[in-house]
Amino acid sequence: MRRRxxxxxxxxxxxxxxxxxxxxxTLRVVTSSTDLASLAAEIGRDRVQAxxxxxxxxxxxxxxxxxxxxxxxxxxxxxALVRIGLSADVWMDTVIEAAQSRAIAPGxxxxxxxxxxIEVLEVPVGRVDRTLGEIHVQGNxxxxxxxxxxxxxxxxxxxxxxxxxPTDGDxxxxxxxxxxxxxxxxLPRWEAAARGLRGARIAAYHKTWSYFVRRFxxxxxxxxxxxxxxxxxxADIQQLSATMARExxxxxxxxxxYSPRIPQTVAREVERRLGxxxxxxxxxxxxxxxxxxxxxxxxxxxLIAKLTEALR
Amino acid sequence: MLDVVGQPFFQHALVAGTLVGLMGSLVGVYxxxxxxxxxxxxxAQLASAGVGLALLVGWPLLPTALAASLGGAVAxxxxxxxxxxxxxxxxxxxxxxxxxxxxVFVAKNPVGExxxxxxxxxxxxxxxxxxxxxxxxxxxVVTLVHIVFRKEFVFVAFDYETAAAQGVRARLWHLLLYLTxxxxxAFAIRSAGVLVTFALLVVPALAARLLVAHxxxxxxxxxxxxxxxxxxxxxxxxxxDLPTGAAISLTLVLLAGFALAxxxxxxxxxxxxxxxxVLAALTSTAAAQAPPAVPSAPTAPGAGRESLPERPxxxxxxxxxxxxxxxxxxxxxxxxxxNYRRLERQLGEEQEGEEFFVRRNRLNVREVELGLxxxxxxxxxxxxxxxxxxxxxxxxxxxxxxxxxxFGALPGRIELKVGxxxxxxxxxxxxxxxxxxxxxxxxxxxxxxxxxxxxxxxxGLAANRxxxxxxxxxxxxxxxxxxxxxxxxxxxxxxxxxxxPTWFGxxxxxxxxGETIGLEVGAGYASGYALDEDDRPTxxxxxxxxxxxVDYRHPxxxxxxxVNFLTEVFHTxxxxxxxxxxxxxxxxxxxxxxxxxxxxxxxxxxxxxxxSQLPTLAEEDDAPRLRYETAGSLIVSYRPSRFLxxxxxxxxxxxxxxxxxxxxxxQALFKVGYERPGPF
Lengths: 312, 680
Known about the structure:
Chain A is an alpha/beta fold and 312 residues long.
């Protein structure tokens, strides 16, 4: 046993020592979310192997009690790291510290904060404290739900990857331009498809959709969890039901990580008040949240299709 | 509503209530001192059985109740000096008999049922003038007897055996004490009912015990609470239109709780004031220097863009570079039932001079921590934890709990820590104990690493390196050199790090099975020396540690569902010198097994099993050579938010060298400020 452990660790040490220079091989990129991995793959194509620590149906902004050791190992071997930023993925700081790699530490070439230059929504102003619940002190981190922001994120990733592998810079820039033009082409298509959603009143579990609804013109009348991170009280449920009934909202969307129990309770209450059926819709919040949403484009397609279907 | 106060029946009730409150709370102090709360309720039950009997056969109520209660008092005071008969069992027998007889008497007498109920559940509102006079007389006599014989009563109540041994006429005083108890209880039940009587026997004395330390103050406070509580409860019953007995009892409890809360708040202020001053100074400078907040234009949801600060003013360097700050608090209440004084006497000798994890039967601000962390430069970072820790009743010690300089950019990805920190020797020592789903630390931790329950915190250096074995499996190797400052494990590091360092080595393997199950297996070995009589470091202390942890989290609904199982074993070998200076080796071991299941987003339930041999030799000759403890715990945690945890633990501990104990712990844990997830 001892001998095998020794061989395994010796092999690991050897691997670390003989790692080839970045230019000669595929770049390893680790990301907080599947969205960022998908974008990194768009820009790196065959030069990049991008993988997210979280799965698409999970939520990297939720609090992580303990990081997995395998994340640290993967981060320590990575050439670049892309994070959500805005204090949404604080756990990444622990990963970076433990990985002890200058390449991906803040200030290193491979450290990429995807939120740079994003126009952030819902930055709290005035007094900020925890009576508001587990709010995002630096603003809403779900900026990738607006396709226009995907171009900015892509640009951040291009800069980072070019720092890591300058010889690939031209290739990355070409790929990013191609990605941007595909977004530009898709935007009118998405907006046309989402025309039916404009002005639609919905309720949501968490403030995930702010960027999405701003882009496509839906109106969120209320949240199941008005104070993030705090389980809603009966009064919260009553209040949301009353608001939904008043506003005529008949759709509640919840992210896969939240139990449908509360949305279903609210739905029953609204149905009772309105006398009309109310739908509870589980909507993925990230790429690969459902098998169909295999890349960023398919993800946005899926959101619009599901919402349109539910609101029909 | 309040004009009822002018009515004669209510004035009667007020006077009766005050008298009953005075008498009940007075004798209640003895009930508490003698740890015979059960006796109180048994006597009360006997009195009510007497009432039942009187109603059935048509005897006068009061004398019968009195006779029953006094008979019980005499009987119980007698069994007390019969050695070998557990008092509890006989009192319990008396209680069962009285309760059963009471039911039978009442059941056999359908006409009397309503009246019996009235008597049993008390109606202080219907005390006639004649009975009031009798009550006043009895209250005066009981109080007088207690004033005259207070010294004797206290003596026999505290320590019957010593009193008897010193030639005090212990039996007589004891009997008299029990008789006053019986009389007081019988009259109190007649006037106020079983519920109020029992509440008076227990609540004021218990609250007073928690509030004050000195005996005189104890009596004063209990009597004040009881005498005020009953009339107050009557008023509450009227204003809120509640049943009087229940209202009085609840008022007593609330009054006691209020008094406690006031006292604890006042006590809290001292240590917290210092911390809050520091924080206030920090935040006020930050607020003064922060960029003015730009108010956002109110917008309809989803309708438009929210405005942002146009050009954020950068923070001045001294603020931007301030370390991150966090504050954590840990408040623990403990209630130990059973004969805890005897327990403390037996455990006390070895624990004297050591910090307690928690003081028995008290509410404690166990600890308030101020954490500061920052990077120093590209190569190193620093974290310090300053804590105010309760060491004795109401006394806090402010100290440096941890101060860690971490070099995080060494070649070969080796992480080096220097300073004072939680050694990562074993899973408990590797984690923040407050992250464990338990209130009190495992017995093996307190036995091997000290009663403070903090585990092994030491000054020295430690290095670790993480290796990826496969995609899903990793290996962490750690080695450390320390002073061996831990008093319990390494005799206080007299040998010193430079002379004979304490060291440990440890390996941990993590295997991730899919995204849902994490498996962790670790083992470590530590060794240190203490000085012998010739001041040479020859006394060796070795510890072997192993643990297994399995963690399951629902892949999707991980917020709501998870199960964790952890078991950890410590084996120690210690060189001991007996009284003649002869060395001997003492092998001892212990383990804990902890399981927790999260049932809902806010609720978790858990359990723990403890087995721990004491790694020391007993000082008394008659104690068993191999002493051990076995304990079982049930733990419920409620987390209304990520920043606040409320927890309850029930723990039963069995010992082969001291009495068993039953404990209830209540805990409130909070954290504010920066936070980082732990590295596995």
